[in-house]
Design brief:
By secondary structure, the protein is mostly helical. It has one domain (about 5-305). About 65% of the residues lie in helices and about 5% in strands. It contains 13 helices and three strands; from the N terminus they run ααααααβαααααββαα. Helix 7 (about 135-175) runs antiparallel to helix 8 (about 180-190). It is globular, with a radius of gyration of 20 Å. About 35% of the residues are buried. InterPro entries: Rce1/LyrA-like_dom. GO terms for molecular function: hydrolase activity. Keywords: Hydrolase, Membrane, Transmembrane, Transmembrane helix.
Length: about 325
């Protein structure tokens, strides 16, 4: 139902290609302020600097604000494409329900916040030598304001693009659910390949990025809407930004703690994330919202509603 409702609007795949171009232009324009600020700081040397150094060229709160700003421009560009290119209401891109279920967003946000805070607390208790107290009141309060306002915009952009726009676009093209689930997850993970974490820990960490893409895609398909995915993604990025940073992360922040452990990837941590944490999240949501018919919702066909008129073709 969630993917199939895109058939009610202009769903020709060529429109999605143009839409992605519009979004790419929006993101590029949105990154101009950050690029200009770095250029003013580093000059032409910036073109020879590795990404890890570029990310620390500016004061971290200022850099974070400018980087997150680009996602706001990207989200506006995406909504523009959906409204004027597809003539589709944003509600139909968000959910198959008659209105956005904010209780779902809040529930998912709280569950994820508990998992993130709990995970960091357990890590601190088990290996306190890997954590450095990094709290500084004024910079942290500035970070708090920036993060609370702009990180949900960043995560919403990614959800609307991958679990919304591309999920529906690919789904209406191939007429099934598993292909858009897999493709959007691979693209979502692949776009993180330039992150400093990959250079530090190796390509095995890509399993984590692809895994979270699969989790959010499964949640969206099973729940027939993005509300749970929106809440999960926002809480995940927000609490990590506020509580823990390191020299090897994409976002350098004035967080409460700094990870000073030796940069090596422990495979068991990724396996716990993929094989324990994510299944627990799915189990909680499945129990809470009574999910059934998993096979059809994840692998079934996407059928065009018979009630559509010829005038509603692409």
């Amino acid at each position: 139902m969630y993917i199939a409702q895109a058939f009610k609007y202009h769903y020709g795949f060529w429109r999605y290609i143009i839409g992605i171009i519009i979004v790419a232009i929006g993101l590029t324009l949105g990154q101009i302020p950050w690029t200009f600020a770095v250029f003013m700081e580093e000059g032409f040397n910036m073109f020879a600097m590795p990404q890890t150094e570029l990310m620390t060229s500016l004061e971290s709160n200022f850099s974070l604000f400018l980087l997150l700003l680009s996602y706001g421009v990207g989200l506006a560009a995406l909504f523009f494409a959906v409204k004027y290119l597809h003539q589709q209401p944003i509600l139909a891109l968000t959910t198959s329900r008659k209105r956005v279920d904010w209780k779902r967003v809040i529930f998912s946000f709280l569950i994820t916040a508990i998992l993130i805070v709990g995970g960091i607390l357990i890590g601190y208790l088990l290996e306190p030598e890997n954590f450095q107290w990094n709290f500084n009141l004024v910079p942290f309060l500035i970070l708090l304001v920036i993060a609370v306002i702009f990180i949900p915009i960043q995560t919403s952009f990614e959800e609307y693009l991958f679990r919304g726009y591309l999920m529906q676009g690919i789904g209406t093209l191939v007429k099934n659910k598993w292909v858009p689930l897999l493709v959007t997850s691979l693209i979502f993970g692949g776009l993180h390949i330039a992150n400093p974490e990959v250079a530090t820990y190796g390509y095995f960490i890509m399993a984590s990025y692809i895994g979270i893409g699969l989790l959010l895609g499964i949640i969206t398909l099973m729940d027939e809407g993005m509300e749970l995915a929106l809440g999960f993604h926002a809480a995940n990025n927000l609490f990590i930004a506020l509580l823990l940073t390191s020299e090897n992360t994409a976002f350098q922040t004035h967080s409460v703690f700094k990870d000073i452990s030796t940069p090596e990837l422990l495979g068991w941590e990724v396996f716990i994330e993929l094989l324990v944490v994510y299944p627990v999240v799915l189990g909680i949501f499945a129990k809470k919202y009574g999910w059934t018919n998993w096979k059809n919702k994840l692998f079934g066909k996407v059928e065009k509603p018979e009630t559509l008129k010829l005038s509603e073709e692409p």
